[in-house]
Structures are given as structure tokens and as C-alpha cells.
Amino acid sequence: MSGSAKARQVMVVVQFAIVIGLVLVTATIYRQTQFALHDALRLNTSQNIRMQTACRSAFRQQLAAVPGVRAVSCGDQASLALGGSNTLVTMPDRSVRTLNLGIINVGFFEMHGLKPLAGRFPSRAHSEDVLLDKPVPGPYPDLQPTVVVNESAARLLGYARPADAVGKTITWARWSASADFAKLPPSRPSQIVGVAPDFTLGSIRSVIPPSIYYVDPARGRYIIAKLDGAALPETLKAIDAAWRRTGHERVLGYVFESASVQSLYRDVITQGVAIAICAGLAVVIACLGLFALAAFVTERRTKEIGVRKAMGADTLDVVLLLLWQFTVPVLAATAIARRFSSSARVRLVRAVEELI
Question: How far apart are CA 181 and CA 187, in angstroms?
Fold first, then answer.
């Protein structure tokens, strides 16, 4: 093989090795981004809208009657990963554990597509779950409803399996609406009725904290509604009308939870799109180069092809001869890319995880 032919073969190998590497990088970033947006969250946020307004209000009742609204629930900053709120849990040995404290309403877990790992979620069929959801507003500092803990909280409380936590009693401090936040409220017992999987509506850049959830509409500051999506513009207009009917003059602000989650990973999504465009251009350039090289080699071997045809070779034999000449460097490029991609992809995954 002449020096120019060797140089062409080396250039084809290097070019396709780079192209295959870019494709692997693009696929890795895409898979990590999809994991962050869907799998890691463990939530169904499709068609969920969030509104910053009091849970205990006439608007919530009007909202539940709007056509196109499938479910309505409430939450606070902690349960929606918009802020933090802690409580102290006293263990049987008198030691203390600090847990995140999330306020929810009945249906909060279900509208996000969550299922209990053990036990059940709060329900109006169980009066002990909704002790604080009374027609007459009040702080009710002496009432202590049942709670749901997430998987991390169950482990922190010393339970090896989620099922072991169900039915157990924990002693914790509940902040009521009339509590003096300069002083820790007294701790009272509650029964654990269910264990939820670890989930977050925030970024998975942060560790999901051990959390307790309980129903307290008086302290819910956000309303979440799940829409059926069949007539979305009409449903949103009906929600605005319900908002005005309840005496509000300011514009109702709402955000789709899916859009809120995607905004947390906008930088990673942008990087993935940019690399995907570069990979696509590299593939096009590599294919054009391979086509030009095929045309050049075919022209150089015209006499050889003529001799082979004269000796009885058919068209398929000639095509296979030429195809094999270009398949070998492409296979070599694939082997090189795979050889270096394993360790490189591990480093890339770690880098993307740090970004996410």
C-alpha cells in the first residue's frame, strides 16, 4: 500500500473514531438528562399547575368544580421543594432526629403518580388523617394528625424496611398557625400510616432529605391542580374566571410543574442540544468524505474492475470488494472508539451528574 493510501486510511479511521465518540457523548448526555427529568424525580408532573394562594379558600372549592380539572390538592414550600422547614423527632432513647416537614392535603401524592411503599396515604375516610381539616379555621395546637414519612426518614428512624415503620408511633413537634416561632412547640405522638418513596419537585443536584408529611390546609400556601389536557386553553380561562369570582383583582399566577422542573436543568439541556448538533454535522461531514473517497478509489480501480468483470465477476462481487475496503477502517474506528469510550463515558457521566 502506498504512502498516500495509508494516509487516507488513517484519516478515515481518525475521522470516524471522532464521530462515533461524539455520538456516544450525545447519547450519554441525553440519557442522563432524561434520568434527571423523569426517572430520578419519580413523579408525574404532566398537566399539573401550581398556584401560590392559600389552600383554605373559596377559590379552592371553585377550582375543584371547574370542567377540565381532574384533582386539586395543596402543599407548602417544603413539600414542593421551594424552601425548607424542619421538625425535631424524639426517639425512644430520648435522642433527637431532625427531619424535613412537608405540609400536604389529601390527594397530593396520588396526583403526582406516587404509590406507597408500605401502608397508605392520607384519606378522608380516616378521620385521624384530617384532624386539622375542619370547617372552622383554627390553629388546633393540641391535635396531632397521622403522618407519612419518606423512605429516607424511615431509615433514619431506624426501620430496616418501609413496612416496619407502618403503625409505629413517633413523637415530634408540630408548628401550628398560632405558634410562637421563637419557641419550639411541645412534642406529641403521631402514628405513621404510610411510607412514600423518596421524591422531589426540585433538582436532584440536592440530596432528598428525610421528610415527614401531614395534612394541614390552614398552612398550605400553594394549590396544585391536575388538568385533563383535553381542552387546556378553555380550562385555564375557566380557572381565571373562578379566580375573579372569588373576589381577587390581581392576575392569577400559575406555573406548570413540568416546565418548572425542566427549567432546573436548562443548562444541561442546552449543552446536550449543542453537542447533538455538532455530532450531526460531524456525521454528515464524515459521510461526505467517505463518499468522496469511494468515488476516488473507484476511479483509480476502473481497470481492475473491468478485468474482474471480464473474468466473470458480477456486480455484487465488485460492490463487495469496494465495500470491504471502506468497512475495514470504519470497523477499526469503532474498535478504537469503544476502547476509549468506556472510561471516557464514566468520567462524562460523573461530570453530567455534577452539572445536574
Answer: 14
At position 172, the amino acid (one-letter code) is W
Q: Which long-range contacts (CB under 8 A, 24 or more apart) does 279-288 make?
A: 279/19, 279/22, 279/23, 279/25, 279/26, 282/18, 282/19, 282/22, 283/19, 283/23, 285/15, 286/15, 286/16, 286/19
pLDDT digit string (tens) for 265-285? Answer: 777 777 777 877 877 887 787
Is the pTM for the entire model greater than 0.90? no
Confidence of residue 355 (pLDDT cuts 50, 70, 90): very low
Per-domain residue ranges of the chain: 3-39+282-355, 53-252
Please give the Cα distance from 57 to 246 (Å, whole number).
9
Q: What φ, ψ does residue 118 adopt, rounded to 5°?
A: -160, 150
Q: Across the strands, what pairs with 194?
A: 119, 148
Give dist(CA 106, CA 9) in Å, integer: 67
Terminal Cα-to-Cα distance of the chain (whole angstroms): 50
